[in-house]
Design brief:
CATH topology: Rossmann fold
CATH superfamily: Class I glutamine amidotransferase (GATase) domain
Shape: globular
CATH class: Alpha Beta
Radius of gyration: 16 Å
Largest sheet: 7 strands, mixed
Number of domains: 1
Number of strands: 9
Structural class: alpha/beta
Number of helices: 8
Strand order of the largest sheet: 3-2-1-4-5-9-8
Distance between the termini: 9 Å
Helix content: 25-40%
Amino acid sequence: MKNKRALIVITNHSDFKHPKAEPTGLWLSELTHFYDVFEEGNIPMDIVSITGGNIPVDKRSLGWMVLDKATKRRNEDSKFMSLLKNTKSISEIKTEDYDIIYFAGGHGAMWDFEDNELLKSMTREMYESGKIVAAVCHGVSALQNVKLSNGEHLIKGKKGTGFSYFDESIAGVKKFVPYNLQQRLKDRGMEYSKAFFPLAGHTVVDGLLITGQNPNSATKTAQMALEVLKEI
């Protein structure tokens, strides 16, 4: 896969805008698992954010019940974590330099991924250019309002997934989230599906659109994206 390159977009947003909620941000494993798979596949990557600068990491993603060995290793790697200290903004990159755009999640993405005009146009341009659009968990928020040149939503009629509304209860933040992502995706025409068991991994591939339901889907989503990348 000579000359292939991946663009990873992560959130800058760090709070639920609710006085009783803990801070949020990037769910670290949704970045690291993708990064691990693509690094092993020898695909160069650039990590950017909406406004650039330092990236807030959701401390819940570092908890002992969810922090897996691979993510723990990355979290303790100062060289890797320095990539999150001074990210470029999406306004500083050119979509023609990349073959795939990947949206990592974390609840913060529900705010700054939702309706950013530049992000929407970048996503449309890449998809209509025959490039891969991939997202995991709340990173799928980036896709809900993307419209193609024909005026229809990118996800209309596409099979896909994203963090389920039921699982917001398990995460303990259902009363804090700004909207029901699952319903939003369905309202835009996505043929939404989810894992039978709560928080179980679930990845859906529909052509150049690849989505994962939750953090436990990040590795599989990256693996499937890498397979599709080999074919384009």
